[in-house]
Amino acid sequence: MTVIAVIKRYFIYYTSDPSEENASITELEAQIATLRIREEEARRISEFVSQQRCALEKERDRLIAQTNPFDRVPSELLIDIFEHFVERDDENNTSAFYFRPFTLSHVCHRWRCVALDTSGLWCAVLMTCHNTEMLLAQLARSKLHQLAIDVRVAPTTTRGEVVTSLWSLAAAATRWRTLTWAPSSHLLTHGFIFILHKLRSLPKLRLLDLAQEGEALHIKEDAQSSVHPDVFPALETLRLRRISPLDFPTCTLPNLRTLHIDFPNNTSRHLRMSNLCAILSRTPSLSELTLNGSVPLMDIYVDIRPTTLVNPDLPPRARRTPLQICPVALPRLSAFECSFPPPRDLWLFFHFLAVPALRRLELSFNAYTARWLQLYNDQLSEATVNPLLGEQPGPLAQLSQLEDLSVECVDIEGLTMALKRLNAPALKSLSLTYLPAEPKPGPLLPQLPRLESMFREPRIPTLTRLSISCFDLDLENTKTMLRYTQSLVHLTLRSCLGAGKVVCALSGGTCADGHVNHTASWICPRLERLTLVHCVDVRFRCLSGVVIARKAGSQMSFDAETIVQCTSASPMRGRRIRPLKKRVAPLANSSACNLQSYVAPEPLSGMPVNGSFVPGWKPHELLKPSRILSVHVEGCPRISRIEAMSLEEEGWDVPDVLWKP
């Protein structure tokens, strides 16, 4: 039998009847289908169980979270806490202040979600030019909120990096609220100023603080011409440190309230009066002006003739004024601070500026020998040309609304010369401080000049606050000075020699007679507050004597008999203030004295409107003293804390007592 025959035989045998195999296959497929159904049911059950487990876990986590007080804080309250933390002032002004939102967003998942959803947390932006991604993240997370930007550029930063970061920041220029440019190199600041000239509008910007190191900037004329005229419509505060107004964009500043210029004249460029008057002419709402070491170089003339009321037409984008101008009107300027002006020439400044509403004036004088630098006909000199055109009014500045005057001087001559040329009939607060140009060893201090040596009119009936610092007080001169201030309420003596005798004199008596006032006259009868700082010769016996004597005097009733007895028993000590003779103006072409038809002539400049008398001055009025209501003592070694605080006890009855070592 061949092989092929054998294979056919076996093939016929095994394939003869497949019915049994088919039945088996069908049965297996049915079983597989059943298992698939059960598998699907099991999967659904597993998903259901998993969902139930997840729900229970979330409920458990929620209940656990309720046991943690930090997680139980509502989101609204959490936002308030975050805002308080982010907005808290940084005493050291470090860059960590600007990373507080990032710190909050990395504590936990919930805090991160709340922080990212609160756009107000990301408004303070720090630009260092080294992390552009962080800058873009803050700009995106702040959404539509206004931005407070602080630019701090390292000296190693290139100008290209600065320009790239600034253009990224300029994309949100419409949301800038404040912008501070920290001192940096000349080239970097020049790049920022250049971009600032290219911006079209900063409608939300309220504060702009620009500073630089090194030499002054120099912006080309063509760059200035491209500035939009209304780029700063809402700017209220402008600070320029070592940046001249000449380089600031020449645009109108309709809402500017505060202008601070710090441009020392020891640089290669000087602040000129023409540049200063040009920028001031574009600030009609200015209320505070500060010139810190920036005495402008006199290079223009001012026409003070009354017939000239307005300035000639100035180009709206002028960087300098013409050679001849009229006084720049600043109708809302209420505060002016100037450092190192020449005392003899200060009065000239108030002829260039018309400041009818000036109420606060702070001056730190240069030495008496200093004069105002001038630049006329390309020649630099010291006060050789008169910048006033028209009838010369004399060296006097009229400040009719001035109420607060603070003066720091380096010599007595400059103090007396400058104050003699200021007329302030409404003065309420006066501060006099001596600051030596060079510290000298020993307690040598200059003697405080007499009031009539400092002011054209020594009688100041409106003065209520007087502060004297670092002077040697002569008793008789100081008593005379205080008698000219009948309305004085608050007296401050700081680091003054001879302050002990002055305090003793306020009681109306002396240490020898137990501080008993035998007369009806008092020095500063309305005095209520007394502040003594670092006065080494003031004793508690004299201070308590002042308090007791004035309390007893305030409870006395002054009738005519008592006044006669007091004045006859003991004459008034010290120099008596006698009124000047009253001037009688003759009546023109009239032999009879017709007082009804007589019209008093106009008073001369700087003279009282009431002849020899000052309105409000009552030289013969007898006043009861006011009680001392406040005593502040600091750094006085002869007054202990126990002694000072005893003034609050019964008998002295001083409600406000403060003592510091």
Automatic annotation (TrEMBL):
InterPro entries: LRR_dom_sf. It comes from the Eukaryota. This is Uncharacterized protein. It comes from Postia placenta MAD-698-R-SB12.
